[in-house]
């Protein structure tokens, strides 16, 4: 089946931030053949290609004068076992939160700490999503990806994916070499709860649950996220806009001495992870707006589309926050979402 190429497509509803943008061409590909066909079409026309997953980690700062390709491969299946884990393979086009729920329903816990994260399964390894003490890499077995340089599908293990904090090989140059087709997870057969993260532990304590099941952890994570973070269906956002900065011990000591309330988390390698939300809050940005872009009043790490915001306004707010944090704390904030297109100059 040939890939269906649409022209002049409105992308606003295809991103959780909901800023206006259009693609000159668009294709939602449900198979490897359709992906290959769409790429061949773009090559024949000489137009650039932008891969778009669930749209939960992207800011369109301008229209895209090429082909936006959205891999939408379906499917979920238990594909085997190892001594320690159930192997579950999921197509790139499946919704992440629905997948987490599905694994629990089938008795394969392990992803529950990552509940309610928006976006698609195919986008999850690109960002190495993480929350409440767990990262995707902790439950990763391998993935299948289409290599645009060779036109072949290959399997990539954890080492090949080069996972880091909110990072992977897929975010490095050339950024769009790989198109994720499916992800296989290794879900522990001997499951134990990962519930030491402060917000999660406090929620379980409030529920008077001392020995939580996987479903208890799932429910608690959902409750915490719903309380702290806006629903993208109601308020446009991409979740956490900035990464939590990693600093060395000397930098941490300097900041801790100057700011006794500093929120930080020691790392195994001697570094410290700073809470970017705390830095932004201390800089006075929580609840503030620039144009139609706003810092969420309940979570300073989340930038929102307050209604009618453009990508340019979101980025202007992010730049203003980063400049202020750098001036006050001498810490450089790094944005999490991918920015597509340069804002037009005034």
UniProtKB/TrEMBL annotation:
<keyword id="KW-0521">NADP</keyword>
<dbReference type="InterPro" id="IPR016166">
    <property type="entry name" value="FAD-bd_PCMH"/>
</dbReference>
<comment type="similarity">
    <text>Belongs to the MurB family.</text>
</comment>
<dbReference type="GO" id="GO:0008360">
    <property type="term" value="P:regulation of cell shape"/>
</dbReference>
<dbReference type="GO" id="GO:0051301">
    <property type="term" value="P:cell division"/>
</dbReference>
<dbReference type="GO" id="GO:0071555">
    <property type="term" value="P:cell wall organization"/>
</dbReference>
<comment type="pathway">
    <text>Cell wall biogenesis; peptidoglycan biosynthesis.</text>
</comment>
<dbReference type="InterPro" id="IPR036635">
    <property type="entry name" value="MurB_C_sf"/>
</dbReference>
<feature type="domain" description="FAD-binding PCMH-type">
    <location>
        <begin position="18"/>
        <end position="190"/>
    </location>
</feature>
<keyword id="KW-0573">Peptidoglycan synthesis</keyword>
<dbReference type="InterPro" id="IPR016167">
    <property type="entry name" value="FAD-bd_PCMH_sub1"/>
</dbReference>
<comment type="function">
    <text>Cell wall formation.</text>
</comment>
<dbReference type="InterPro" id="IPR003170">
    <property type="entry name" value="MurB"/>
</dbReference>
<keyword id="KW-0961">Cell wall biogenesis/degradation</keyword>
<dbReference type="GO" id="GO:0005829">
    <property type="term" value="C:cytosol"/>
</dbReference>
<keyword id="KW-0131">Cell cycle</keyword>
<dbReference type="Pfam" id="PF02873">
    <property type="entry name" value="MurB_C"/>
</dbReference>
<protein>
    <recommendedName>
        <fullName>UDP-N-acetylenolpyruvoylglucosamine reductase</fullName>
        <ecNumber>1.3.1.98</ecNumber>
    </recommendedName>
</protein>
<keyword id="KW-0285">Flavoprotein</keyword>
<dbReference type="InterPro" id="IPR011601">
    <property type="entry name" value="MurB_C"/>
</dbReference>
<dbReference type="GO" id="GO:0009252">
    <property type="term" value="P:peptidoglycan biosynthetic process"/>
</dbReference>
<dbReference type="InterPro" id="IPR036318">
    <property type="entry name" value="FAD-bd_PCMH-like_sf"/>
</dbReference>
<keyword id="KW-0560">Oxidoreductase</keyword>
<dbReference type="Pfam" id="PF01565">
    <property type="entry name" value="FAD_binding_4"/>
</dbReference>
<keyword id="KW-0133">Cell shape</keyword>
<keyword id="KW-0274">FAD</keyword>
<dbReference type="InterPro" id="IPR016169">
    <property type="entry name" value="FAD-bd_PCMH_sub2"/>
</dbReference>
<feature type="active site">
    <location>
        <position position="336"/>
    </location>
</feature>
<dbReference type="InterPro" id="IPR006094">
    <property type="entry name" value="Oxid_FAD_bind_N"/>
</dbReference>
<feature type="active site" description="Proton donor">
    <location>
        <position position="240"/>
    </location>
</feature>
<dbReference type="GO" id="GO:0071949">
    <property type="term" value="F:FAD binding"/>
</dbReference>
<keyword id="KW-0963">Cytoplasm</keyword>
<keyword id="KW-0132">Cell division</keyword>
<dbReference type="GO" id="GO:0008762">
    <property type="term" value="F:UDP-N-acetylmuramate dehydrogenase activity"/>
</dbReference>
<feature type="active site">
    <location>
        <position position="166"/>
    </location>
</feature>
């Amino acid at each position: 089946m040939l890939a269906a190429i649409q022209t002049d497509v409105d992308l606003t509803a295809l991103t959780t931030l909901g800023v206006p943008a259009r693609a000159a061409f668009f294709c939602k590909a449900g198979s490897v053949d359709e992906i290959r066909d769409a790429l061949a079409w773009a090559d024949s026309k000489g137009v650039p290609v932008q891969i778009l997953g669930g749209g939960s980690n992207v800011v369109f700062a301008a229209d895209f004068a090429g082909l936006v390709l959205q891999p939408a491969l379906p499917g979920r299946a238990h594909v085997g076992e190892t001594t320690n884990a159930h192997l579950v393979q999921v197509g790139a086009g499946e919704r992440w939160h629905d997948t987490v729920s599905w694994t629990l329903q089938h008795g394969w816990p392990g992803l529950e700490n990552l509940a309610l994260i928006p976006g698609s399964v195919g986008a999850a390894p690109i960002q190495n999503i993480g929350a409440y003490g767990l990262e995707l890499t902790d439950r990763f077995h391998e993935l299948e990806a289409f290599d645009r340089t060779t036109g072949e599908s290959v399997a990539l293990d954890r080492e090949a994916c080069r996972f880091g904090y909110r990072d992977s090989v897929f975010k490095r140059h050339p950024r769009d070499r790989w198109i994720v087709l499916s992800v296989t997870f290794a879900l522990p057969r001997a499951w134990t709860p990962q519930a030491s993260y402060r917000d999660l532990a406090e929620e379980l304590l409030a529920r008077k649950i001392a020995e939580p099941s996987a479903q208890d952890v799932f429910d608690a994570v959902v409750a915490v996220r719903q309380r702290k973070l806006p629903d993208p269906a109601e308020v446009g956002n991409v979740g956490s806009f900035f990464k939590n900065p990693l600093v060395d011990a000397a930098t941490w000591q300097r900041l801790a001495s100057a700011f006794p309330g500093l929120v930080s988390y020691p790392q195994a390698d001697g570094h410290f992870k700073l809470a970017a939300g705390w830095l932004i809050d201390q800089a006075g940005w929580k609840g503030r707006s620039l144009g139609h872009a706003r810092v969420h009043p309940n979570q300073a790490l989340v930038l929102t589309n307050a209604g009618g915001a453009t990508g340019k306004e979101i980025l202007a707010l992010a730049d203003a926050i980063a400049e202020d944090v750098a001036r006050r704390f001498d810490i450089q904030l790094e944005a999490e979402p991918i920015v597509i297109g340069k804002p037009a100059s005034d």
